[in-house]
Automatic annotation (TrEMBL):
Cellular localisation: Membrane
Transmembrane helix recorded as keyword: yes
Membrane topology: Multi-pass membrane protein
Organism (species): Dendroctonus ponderosae (Mountain pine beetle)
Entries under InterPro entries matching the protein: Mpv17_PMP22
Protein name per UniProt: Peroxisomal membrane protein 2
Length: 186
């Protein structure tokens, strides 16, 4: 029982912050998840020296965009497709998978490359090399999770759930990007 008190305390604090300051809370949460995901991907890939540039890029991206863009998208989605609409979940899923996800994936790949200090041309080349693979993988592997997120998760927690899914997605993306860089260097 005594172990649950700190957990209840942390959850209570988090939900209080989420209610009082939703955008800030989502941005900080996403930053932490992005940092953890990139750190884990570096460790899993066997990196002996931690790449601080990618760690900082993922953290910055999470703080500036990873919490805010989904926050505003899900708010828009709730207004664009109200619960009372026929096939509301299907319409929301289609909008997310076919409009938001392709745009967000492109922006993420480009912005992360730029935040890592790469020039525009290198970022665009990296985007061209990874975009279709990342997008189709997202459609293939994340659509069911996104359907569950839209259908059973309360709107207030959707960004958190997306960020938790994003933790594993960051590991996947980071490994794909590393593989691309290793292939180019050979």
């Amino acid at each position: 029982m005594s172990l649950s008190k700190p957990i209840i305390s942390v959850l209570s604090f988090y939900f209080g912050q989420l209610y009082e300051h939703p955008l800030r809370t989502k941005a900080v949460s996403c930053c932490m998840v992005a940092l953890a995901g990139n750190y884990a991907s570096q460790k899993i890939s066997g990196t002996k020296i931690l790449n601080i540039h990618t760690l900082a890029a993922y953290g910055t991206f999470g703080l500036l965009f990873g919490g805010s863009l989904p926050h505003f998208f899900y708010k828009f989605l709730e207004h664009a497709v109200p619960d009372e609409a026929s096939f509301a979940i299907a319409k929301r899923l289609i909008l997310e998978r076919l409009v938001y996800s392709p745009l967000y994936q492109a922006f993420s790949l480009y912005a992360l490359a730029r935040l890592e200090g790469k020039d525009h041309e290198t970022a665009v080349q990296q985007l061209k090399g990874l975009y279709w693979l990342v997008l189709t993988s997202s459609w293939k592997y994340l659509t069911i999770l996104q359907l569950l997120n839209l259908s059973v998760v309360p709107p207030m927690l959707r960004v958190l759930v997306v960020n938790l899914i994003g933790f594993f997605w960051i590991i996947y993306l980071a490994n794909k990007r590393r593989q691309q860089e290793l292939t180019k260097s050979k």
